[in-house]
Every structure is written in structure tokens, then in C-alpha cells.
Amino acid sequence: MSQHFDVVVIGAGPAGYVAAIRAAQLGLKTACIDNFIGKDGKPALGGTCLNVGCIPSKALLDSSKQFHNLVHGFKDHGISAQKPAIDVGTMVGRKDRIVKQFTGGIAQLFKANKVTAIAGFGQLQAGRKVIVTTPDGSTSEVTGTNIILAAGSVPIELPGMAFDGEYIVDNAGALDFQDTPKRLGVIGAGVIGLELGSVWKRLGADVTVLEAMDSFLGAADADIAKIARREFDKQGLAIKLGAKVSKAEVKKKAVEVTYTDKEGEQTLVVDRLLVAVGRRAATKGLLAEGTGVQLDERGRVVVDEHCYTGVEGVWAVGDCVRGPMLAHKGSEEGIAVAELIAGLPGHVNLDTIPWVIYTEPEIAWVGKTEKELKDAGIPYRVGTFPFAAIGRAVAMNETAGQVKMLAHAETDRILGVHMVGPVVSELIAECVVAMEFKGSSEDLARIVHAHPTLSEAVHEAALSVDKRAIHKGN
Amino acid sequence: DGPALSPAAQRVASQHGVDPASVSGTGRDGRVIKEDVQRAMSQPAAAA
């Protein structure tokens, strides 16, 4: 006899747990199935984001930034310290406590909202039945009037470079080094590679990032990527573009990486190697025969603009479907689907999803890049403003970077905003709101911004679109 | 009360003497945005 629910969610990451809570809020009897096991060997809700992604990486980025400032950043302020030292075990322990606090928090939210959490691996069968297999091999089954697939994603493994958890690691491994590696190799100059590379660089590692593409941060606006690259170079992060890795072998407690660049075959020897070339949908084993749910050529669940699979009552959200692999994108899809199931209008605007990279300086953007506008033949105007002319940034000693705003040449509607600089992860929110309201650059230009704040860089960039920024020549 | 106007729409409407009530808004929740006022200005008034 199987238990029946109005909604059964497979996966308790940011897409799945949010969908489950929203469904429960709307009065639907909801279950959420998840098989992630935390560092303490117990089931842990929150998925990749909470356990081995967003939250733990931000914890280490913050700790490593504090240490880096203590060693290098405080002299201008007149602050000195005797022999600064970092205890990596304590830093990682703090990160683990933060993760535990948040995964436990989701368990409490499930209780408060009466969501039934089921530990185990969920596989969808035909007829909206889910078979749950626990780690000890026992099985049970649940059925749902609606099923939400939120299986997430897993790191891509390169052939011949299997993750061994010690020398060749994925994001999870690089969050758990017990000492600072003397030499760290990173394959992939994407968000994960740059953030985790930065963590260990600040703690003293020699970091080399090998990127197969010839351009740096291809998804970002080219001007912003160029400024970021210059700052990373200054920090000593060695980024090698056009470097195609062919093999990595563990020899004498080190990893020998062979790659080819335009000068030919090269060898890099490192103590630890982080492989961060991308992630793929975690749909292996998710679907039994005969469910009717389709996967695309990249293993993603095929859905329409409403995250509907086309199979009655079956939906899919988050990293296991098309679109950017971002926690907030998955969460919004989860909410939209729960609302659709409850008979409410639900919608996610994929055109206004903000991107953030939490390096130093931070990088953030929303909307179209200048190249995308050029390629599409859309007429636009550009406004830029440097943080070096922002009083608050100078007071903070964080003057690198700029805000760049792109607006339609005729209607003035904001089409994209791109930033590199201090705490731009927070500044981007204002631009997302403006774009959601179909705002123009003049709208932001005519809104009062507090002084002195970093947000004045957004205000001045908006003014600069019309060549009337106050604190620079136009 | 009239329609909700964005700050830039308010400026264009005031400067060019456009009655916001005569403009149909295409912004969120029917809000009149800058380009709506611009469009209303470029179109000849509908015959009464």
C-alpha cells in the first residue's frame, strides 16, 4: 500500500525544497524525497547549494578574505598584526557548522509547513508512482497527483581524471581540504573554478587555472570580463586560456597535468587538482521505463516554458532542465510550478535572472551583454561609471571596477546591467527590479540614491547613458 | 488617481503636456513607462 500525496517532489535542493514548501503553503499534501548524505553520515536537505555549493563556498570566501585583508589589506588603515596565521581545520569547521545550521533549518521549515521528508533515492515510474530506495537497499513507494522532478546536477568528470576525493577533486572536495595546498591546479575558469581558486590563493596556494576557451568569462560582458581578468592577474591568480587538458596522473603524491596551448604540449605539476569544467543534469536513474518523460541530448528533462513535461501531472525544475544552473532560478521555477498546480498563475521571467560571481572584486550582471545586443542588431546606448570615483568605495579601499548600463537607443528601456566591483552582488538587485518593471535608464537616473553608498555607481551609470553623469566627464 | 507612472514617464508626460490618463501602460500591472508616453506622443490622436 503506497502513500498518496497531492505533490511529490524528487530532490530537496533550492528548486525542490522551495517547491515543496510553496505547495504546502497552498494547502497541498506534499512529500519531498532526497538522498543527499551530509558529512555526519545523516540525510541532509538543501541539495548542492547548501551542502557543497553556494553556502559553503561563501563561508570560505569570507574567511579567506578576512585572512587576506589581515595579511595584505590593513596597512593603509594603520592596522598591524603580529604573525597572522590561518587554521584551515577551524575555517572548514566553521563552514560545516553553517551548512548544518541551514540544512537543519530546512528540516524545521518542512515540519512547520507539514511537508513529509522522505530519505532515499526517488525513481519515477509510469502512472506518477515513485519508488524510493534507501541506502540500505530497502524500498518503498509513494504516489502523487503531481510529481515535481528537481534532481539537480552533478560535476562533469573528465575522461581519465576520475575524482579520487584526495588529489583530483570536484567542488565538494575543494571545500574540504584540511590544509592549504602548496600548488593548486583548477581546470575551468568558470564561477566554481574562480571562486574556489580565489579561496585557496588568498590562503597562500599557488593557483593555476587552465581554461580550454580562448576568451575569459565568455558569458559575461567583455568589458567587465577584461577588468576582472586584470584584477585577478594582479592578485597572482595564473589564468591560462586556450589550455586544453589531455590527461592528469597522480604521481608521487602530486598530480601531473598535461595540456596543450598555442605553444604546444605543456606539463603542470600540482598538489591538488580541482576539475570544474561544468555540471550536468543528475537524471541518471531518475526515470524508469515507460514514464513518457523525455530527456534531451544533454540528459536534461524536456519541459515547456511552464516547466511542464507534457506528461500529465509531471513537472521538472532547476538544474535538471534547460536554463542557467543557478539556485535562485530553480527556486523561482519551484514556486511557479507549485502555484500552477494549485490553479494560480505562475511564471518565471528567464530574461531577468541575475548572475553573480563572488570573487574579489565581485562580478554581477542581468540581461543582455553588449555583444548580444550588437549581434541582434538592437540599437543601444551605454553608460559607465567607475568605483574609483565613488566616495564609499574609496573609503572602503575597494576602488577596482565599474558599473556598465545598456539601454535601448530609442525607448531608453534598460536591456542589461553589468558590474565588477565591491559588493556588486547586492547592487545588481536594484537593476533586476528596474528591468522587471520595464524601467528606463532615466527611471534609475531620477530615483534618489543614498550618499555615500556604492549604489551611487548604478545611479551615475544610469545618468551616464544620457551623458549627464555628475562625477565624471561625459 | 490616474495611472501609475514610472519616474521617467512622469517627466516626459509633464514636459510634453501629455495627459497620463490618455496613455495605455505596458509596464508591470499596467504601469505607464517612458516608452508608452513617447509612443503616445508620436501617434496622431485618434479621431473622436
Automatic annotation (TrEMBL), chain A:
Q: What else is known?
A: The active site is a redox-active disulfide bond.
Q: Which residues bind FAD?
A: 58, 122, 319, 325-328
* GO molecular function annotations of the record: dihydrolipoyl dehydrogenase (NADH) activity; flavin adenine dinucleotide binding
Q: Which InterPro entries did the record assign? A: Class-I_Pyr_Nuc-Dis_Oxidored, FAD/NAD-bd_sf, FAD/NAD-binding_dom, FAD/NAD-linked_Rdtase_dimer_sf, Lipoamide_DH, Pyr_nuc-diS_OxRdtase, Pyr_nucl-diS_OxRdtase_dimer, Pyr_OxRdtase_I_AS
Q: What is its EC number?
A: 1.8.1.4
* Domain Pyridine nucleotide-disulphide oxidoreductase dimerisation stretches: 353-462
Query: What name appears for this protein in its UniProt entry?
Result: Dihydrolipoyl dehydrogenase
Give the top-level enzyme category. oxidoreductase
Catalytic residue list: 451 (proton acceptor)
UniProt-annotated location(s):
Cytoplasm
Family annotation (PROSITE patterns): PYRIDINE_REDOX_1
- Return the cofactor note field: Binds 1 FAD per subunit.
- What positions belong to coiled-coil segments? none
